[in-house]
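The material for today's practical consists of a large collection of protein records. There is nothing in a record beyond a sequence line and a structure line. As an example, a complete record with its sequence and its structure tokens follows:
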Amino acid sequence: MKEKQWKRLSVQSVMLLVCVLVFGFFYSGDFPGSSGRTVLADDIPDKIVSEDLADLDDEIYVSDTGMGEAPIHASVSTLKERSHTYIKLVEDKIATGAALYIRNDYINKSVSLTINETSEKDFSINNIVRYNKGKTISGKAAKKNKSDFLRNISVRSLKLKSGNYRVIVDIKTKKLYESCLYEIKGEYYISFAEPHKLYDKIVVIDAGHGGIDEGTSSIDKKYHEKDYTLFIVQEIKKLLDKSDIKAYYTRLDDRYVSKLDRTRLANNLKADLFISIHCNASDKGDTTAYGVEALYSARCVNGASITNKRLARLLMNNVAEKTDNRKRGIIKREGLYLLHHADVPTSIVEVGYMTNKSDLKCIRGKLNRKKMATGIYDAIEKAIDTAS
């Protein structure tokens, strides 16, 4: 090779090396580390994990984050057997192949219908016809019309990157319904049925605290009540899903829910039982208190076949026996919001003390939380049997 070619090659190599070094210095993207995980250039973790959950194997139970429930294929007779209260969507306003989903918000007595990938941007409330026990209603919600079961209805359209539209229909009802989306011979209906006409047994399960309301915590502030009440509810849900008891939940993820909304859900459902799950804590500096408690109000619930006190005793006994823990007793508390405002049989169960070393270990143990859930489930079954 000639001398000039050697010099040219050397200069090119040096320039390439300089480019690589400069690129590496200024580039702030991701580089795969030796461990195989993504390492950011400034060493900031790509997922922030709460310190109180960092050493746990559990994951917070999160509710479905998808669009909602897809339509169920059915017949007109199925629709009317379920309920004579329903709405029908005008067929020619929904494009062929459009995807429809429904999501229920029981606390706010509302339903959200999503129509995805439709070519119609001018879909309006006039394209929805309402039927209630033989009466036909259309247009805006008629609050003074006793036949109209809607409090409010609105439609909004969002343009997608594909050029099509996503239509969202927000429906608020005058009372709480269990809604279901049907597809019948290419037409779409939403059926509205009162829960007690569908289910013989209804319970509301409340995971205490949530979101910005952390509840009590361990002495070192590392473990928070809101997380462990949710873990226990996750285990209860697994049991109730396999039973003939219909359960509603005040929260299934880490969110704030007001005491008013929690209580209102139970009252609107006319639930057979309302059970709120909590962890206890003793006065500052005291780590000796331990065991299972249940709280109740002496209020009489009209038409109930089980008293609040009886429900509290069932919860305390069954949870304590399943976890082999101390029965601290049942306590009458008239000043607590849930107990004072619930119009259905209600109790708060305190599964253990986060300020006690032994109880905290029990609460943190996944197997023990399953035992707590089983104890609560057994108490529910016994309470419903008593009411029956």
